[in-house]
Amino acid sequence: MKKKLLVLFFLTVTSLGFSQTLDQLKTDVKLFYEAQYNMDFEKIVSYMHPNVFETITKEELLFVLEQSYQNEQFRIRLVLPQVPFTFSEIKEIEGKKVCKVEYPQTVRMILENPISEDEKTVIEQAILASKPSLKVRFEKDRNAFYIEGVEILIAIADTSTQNTWKLILYDQSQQQEITTILGENVINALGL
Predict the structure, then answer these.
(1) Do residues 165 and 38 touch, judged by C-beta distance below 8 A?
(2) pTM of the model
């Protein structure tokens, strides 16, 4: 009887620990998305995994984010204030808890100046070349591109993050850099 109670207790504690971990991840991902929506670049960077800063400094990343969201040619704004997130199973690999998070990402790229049909075609092709799975349409009345796709975040909790969730935005065009940061075993386990 005692043995059954101990097993039941262990299973309950394990499930509660997993649930709290997943609940915390859900909260962090939601706050990360809200930071993107609100263009709170400092907060976005605060959710990044420390290994990201082995390839780029915090200041450089902040500059890239600011220039990506607004510059002399265009402004980018997230369209949807809230989106549904899909979380994979949390896996433990090489002492790290990892989880793949997917969500729909819809942005509007508002051009600062009118463009010709040829320029529109060139920009649309460049957007699709960066990520062929995107859906892109030009909104003439807004002088903007409406871009829909799916984003993938890799969430990691390990000793370098004091076992709190930190994120890496997965971009297939940067597969080699992401593999260097996380390791091939993590990438393979997440099916990326």
Answers:
(1) no
(2) 0.82
